[in-house]
Amino acid sequence: MQTPLLMVPQQNAPEAVAPPPAYYAPAPASATVELGDLGRILLRRRFLILATVALLTAVTLVYAMLTPALYSSTAQIIIDPQDLQVVTNDVNPSRISPDGGITQVESQVSVAQSNGVLLRAIAATNLTRNQEFNGEGVLDRWLGMFFGSDDGDRTAQTLDALRRRLAVKRDDKVLVLNIIVTARDANTASDLANAIAKAYLADQADARSQAAAAASDAISARLEDQRKRVEQAANAVETYKAEHNMVMAAGNLVSDQELTDLNTQLTAAQTRTAQLRAQVDQLRRQGGAPDATSEAMRSPVIASLRAQEATLVDQISQFGTELGPRHPSMISAQQQLSDLRKLISRELGRLVTAAETDYERALANQKELEAKMASLKGKSLDTDQASVRLRELQRDLDAVRTVYANYLQRAQETREQTNVNSTNARIISYAMPALKKSWPPKGLLVFGAIFGGLALGVGMALIAEYLSPTVLSANQMQSAIEAPVLGVLPGRGRRRSGRSGTAAQKTDAVAGLALQRIAAATRRPPDWPLVPSILVASPLEDKAQRSRVAWQLANAAAARGRRVLFIDINAGKGQKDPQPGVLDVLRGEYSLDAVSRYAPGSSVALLGRGRPAAVFQEAQALYFAHRMLAEANHSFDLVVVDGGALADDLNVLPLVAMADEILLVARLNATPMRDVAATSEAVSIMGRLPTGAMLVDEPA
């Protein structure tokens, strides 16, 4: 909001004082840094970035030239997660982890770098005498010749140096270990890599052999105890059997075997008796026709007699037809048939008698076996309780014997494993002397130095910008002064670098547009007695840009047919005898028409600073400033004041108080924000606020 005019003497006060002009409220601005602003920051501080890149690159080149060359060699070992199984019960069981053995191989990375493996490699290559690794210089060798050397310390130093030059890595998704050794000599690097690979395999073989030997010793130590336990259990069984008169045969009690056999015999006898009884009963039921039994049917004698009977019956039938019943042959045949049938009857009776005899014999045998069975059952009941305890002792004996047999077999297996190499790793690629050095990679270092320098330089540039921010954009300037930016003029350097006609047209267009925005934003009464005025101010370092903007505004207004008075508060400053100017008018010593003049070939009237020797009062200066603008209203349409650096010149205060517009000028990506803030604060101290700003985009 516009600040009211300072108080002036009542007797010299103007007849009418209009209200301060109203301005359009500026749009809210963002204080963030845009991408284009970053580009301008880096472009303006390019010398810092380039110097950082050059310095870092030079240091890198010096390092690359002074650093001794290093060579790297790689030996590869493949590790099978499934161990070589020599025996069924191996000390090192072959089990594959759920991740396919990756964890097992990862653990072997640490094993390959362990002290045991590295000390084996050091001893195999006599590395303690290598000056590159033992840390022994010329002075150390001379001192060692006179005072002796400590081999323990040398070994420790060699181990530490080798560990720094060693890298063991596992390739992605494979079970291969890469043993990489770096040394100043290519042959030394390859020899060390191969020695470490062989030492790793030897260490694995020794570890497995030691594990098998330890297991064998532990098991052998338990064999004697297990043998004694077997003897004790066997003695307990035999003692118990002797005490209870228990005779064993084929692992079982003799009484139990006899009872089993007798039971089998009794069962067979009972079956035989039942069969014979059924046969006798059948024969008895047949009565007069015993020949219908199955025994008669199966008897070969009966069968032969039946065949003869059938033959005689046929003959008698034939004789009856041919000879008659009284023929001698007929009578003889009938007599033979009668005798044959008697033989059949006697044979059938003999079968019945034999069956009954067999039945009685089988029944007697059954009763005898039943008597023996009853006797053995009585004896068996006496030994049942003793058998329970005997079986328990026998089970203990069997268990102890089984454990002893397992221990004995395991001891023999583990004893054999100590002499068998079951290592599951092998060298698939021996290290070869490197043909090219691995360090320092000059190209890579220079490439990294350049990009690292760029990154460091950019970071330093951004830090420097953060510590001392400059005007980066119109939005930032608008946010800082809380007033709109009316335009951005291209710098003079851009005008010379391009086509001058196009650049001049653009500059005039920007100035004309700024004047249009000022005219549109200002509400002045039609009868306002003061001429419209614009005061241009800037920090001290932007003097040239401020003068150019003020002149550009004046020329743009003059080119559009407006009469312009240009007041340069710095013209004639420092001269011994300057021409009368605005300070003389503000003291009331001269009128405006007496001191203003037109520039040669221009329609813009000029008014310089004047003589600053005499001191004038502030209230009087405000009155005469008001009167000067009222007089200028008759001859001019616009007054443009180059107010200089307001923070360094308080004589401009009356002009600041009376000006309609106060524009601040700053250079994009060059004017420090602290200078903008100081100028804005100076305007505030003088009772006003900036109403706008003009920016100059000077080339970086």
UniProtKB/TrEMBL annotation:
UniProt-annotated location(s): Cell membrane
Gene3D superfamilies xrefs: P-loop containing nucleotide triphosphate hydrolases (3.40.50.300)
Stretches assigned to the Tyrosine-protein kinase G-rich domain: 383-463
Keywords, alphabetical: Cell membrane, Coiled coil, Membrane, Transmembrane, Transmembrane helix
Alphabetized InterPro entries for the sequence: Bact_polysacc_biosynth/exp, GNVR, LPS_length_determ_N, P-loop_NTPase
Residue ranges crossing the lipid bilayer per the database entry: 47-66, 444-467
Domain named Polysaccharide chain length determinant N-terminal: residues: 32-123
Keyword Acetylation included in the entry's annotation: no
Chain segments annotated as coiled-coil in the UniProt record: 223-286, 352-410
Topology in the lipid bilayer: Multi-pass membrane protein
Protein name: GNVR domain-containing protein
Species per Swiss-Prot/TrEMBL record: Mesorhizobium montanum
